Amino acid sequence: MATNFDIPQCPNSIEGQYRCAKSDVYVSKETDDAFVIRCRTCGTINIFPKSRDEKKGRYEARLKLDALRNQRE
């Protein structure tokens, strides 16, 4: 499981909300489109979508490469 982002704190422990004494979060599952983040302390589950910028950049680079190949032909 490869993660390239900082795991956010448990929303129940962020300032003003005291339902979670200690933010102890981990990535419990990773799908193609999102990360499922769970807090060991309070059991809260959060879903964070993956960035689509990387996929978009790869797609655009592929289009440029295809256009260059077509020009050469």
Strand content: 15-25%
- The low-confidence runs, each spanning 5 or more residues with pLDDT under 50, are none
Query: What letter string, H or E per element, gives the SSE order?
Result: EEEH
How many beta strands in the DSSP annotation? 3
Tell me the major beta sheet. 3 strands, antiparallel
Q: In order across it, which strands form the biggest sheet?
A: 1-2-3
Tell me roughly what share of residues is in helical segments.
25-40%
Overall residue-averaged pLDDT value = 77
State the end-to-end distance. Answer: 41 Å
Which assembly state applies to the chains in this document?
Answer: single chain
Set out the fold topology:
Layout: E1 25-30, E2 34-39, E3 45-49, H1 53-72
Report on this structure:
There is one protein chain. This protein is of the alpha+beta class and 73 residues long. The chain has one domain (1-73). Helix content is 27%, strand content 23%. It has a 3-stranded antiparallel β-sheet with strand order 1-2-3, with no helix packed on it. The N and C termini lie far apart (41 Å). 7% of the residues are buried.
What is the compact description of this entry?
The chain has one helix spanning 53-72; strands at 25-30, 34-39, 45-49. It is α+β, with helices and mostly antiparallel strands and 73 residues long.
Give descriptors for this structure.
73 residues, alpha+beta, 3-stranded antiparallel β-sheet, 1 helix, 23% strand, rod-shaped
